[in-house]
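step=encode ok
step=design start
structure_in=
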């Protein structure tokens, strides 16, 4: 029995070494190469601005816009006049968006020129578009000489990535 143990140990080692060499000879090295990128991604923008309506005698001008801003040059002549602009926002990206914040401020506080908007879409999924209107009014209830002859409105519409994406 004493003479058999070393031969068994040597046999087991030879078998293990043979299996290791056989595995190495038969194994293949696999290399994975790849490139990942974001295609399109976030792209919420203004795509159109047009005059929807204007009171007789008003000059709505030609609205100027970029992907992220709109400039109006409106001229109203008498109380009760109004101009309505229709603005289109499109989600041209691949990420769904949700409305986070809307802020409209006048440069000068005025009761003579009044700005209002229709409600914006709360969700703007990839590929969808929404429209809303901005109305500029010469206040009909103005009983005095206008204190403000011109005014500037600043609007910020903030869409953010929809949670749960």
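sequence_out=
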């Amino acid at each position: 029995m004493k003479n058999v143990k070393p031969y068994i140990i040597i046999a087991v080692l030879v078998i293990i070494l043979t299996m290791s060499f056989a595995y190495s000879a038969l194994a293949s090295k696999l290399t994975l190469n790849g490139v990942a990128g974001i295609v399109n991604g976030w792209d919420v923008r203004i795509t159109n601005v047009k005059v929807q309506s204007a009171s007789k005698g008003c000059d709505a001008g030609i609205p100027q816009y970029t992907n992220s801003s709109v400039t109006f040059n409106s001229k109203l002549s008498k109380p009760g006049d109004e101009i309505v602009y229709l603005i289109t926002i499109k989600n041209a990206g691949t990420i769904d968006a949700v409305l986070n914040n809307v802020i409209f401020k006048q440069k000068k506080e005025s009761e003579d020129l009044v700005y209002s908007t229709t409600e914006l879409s709360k969700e703007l999924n990839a590929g969808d578009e929404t429209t809303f209107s901005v109305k500029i009014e010469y206040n009909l209830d103005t009983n005095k000489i206008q204190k403000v002859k011109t005014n500037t409105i600043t609007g910020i519409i903030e869409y953010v990535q929809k949670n749960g994406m």
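step=design ok
step=annotate ok -> The helical segments are 4-26.
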